[in-house]
Amino acid sequence: MPAGGARPMSLTKALIHLDHLTHNLELLQGLVGERPMWPAIKANAYGHGVDVVARHLVGLGYQTLCVAHVTEAIELIEAGIDATYLLLSASAPEHSESIVSHGCEPVVCTHEMLEALATAAQRLSTSVAIHLKVDTGMGRIGIQPDEVPAFLHRCSALPRVQVRSLMSHFCCADETDKTLSNQAIERFQQLVSEARASGINSFHMANSAAIFDLPASYFDVVRPGIAIYGLRPSWEISNPLVEELKPVLEWRTQITFLKEVPAGIGLSYGHTFHTERPSLIATLPVGYGDGLHRGLSNKCEMLVRGVRCPQVGRITMDQTLIDVTALRGQIGLGEEVVIIGGQGDEVITADELADKLGTINYEIVTAILERVQREIVTGS
Known about the structure:
7-stranded parallel β-sheet, alpha/beta, elongated, 19 strands, 2 domains, TIM Barrel, 23% strand, 28% helix
């Protein structure tokens, strides 16, 4: 053992409920039937800890996992997590050799990338599977629908390139108005027959929102993301089954300092908060360096003994303050504090924090940085 004893545990933790992850996957699988699901684990599994999540998914039998970039895939491959990695973002030609050598399957939507992958596969005496991305309305990446035949023809002339699927992505599937989404499905559907005649036998475009509200988009495979983590794609989803999702992540810390402060005292940088009464103020070892957004300063609450306690003063890089005056005489150092999750009869959700910032729950959880220790919880 190194000098100084065992490595200390982090005071701020993200608790990952793997049983909730399994529940959410089963819920989604029930909607799509026997179609394969290719879960999205990009951005550190939406902040949930990619190593933990990926190992659990593979253990459940999921064989294809969606990441953003080849660097994310390589990290998992080197960690010994055996899966097929679909790279969802457009890659650069200079990454072709790494993509091919690691057996990754990239989304492709440019001739430059196609040729670079073919060259790398030739050089490495192997082949590469690709997923041809079509823009059906998202306006981000993808070839136009009328370019598909020519692109597939070019692919057929490259023997070391295999087109595993044709794919697309929604821009508005999480909105009440499904007009644009239905138009996207129609555009994609028009490509299916022609692409099948070219030997393509896999088509996919459904994300979490589409799995709930757009069954016509299921095609051969679906790609759930935010929903596997138990978070709603939006509050405009109409399918009541969305209510059965169980959040996978809780975010907790503890009190490291307590101080009595008289009325009229400014707290933290800039003194953006002044006490209006004699107050008991707790310091917590969590800040924007952990992913607790500075924009939440003086806007959010945290739970202590099931009581909502207001955050006060500016959130700093490593520490923040909460007003625990309501619990004077009941708490001490080491008291648990819940940032996201339940305690007693109260619950603070990622959606609540997102609403205070004018953003979405995706950003709240994805922002939780790696220095926040992920701790596996196997039971509710």
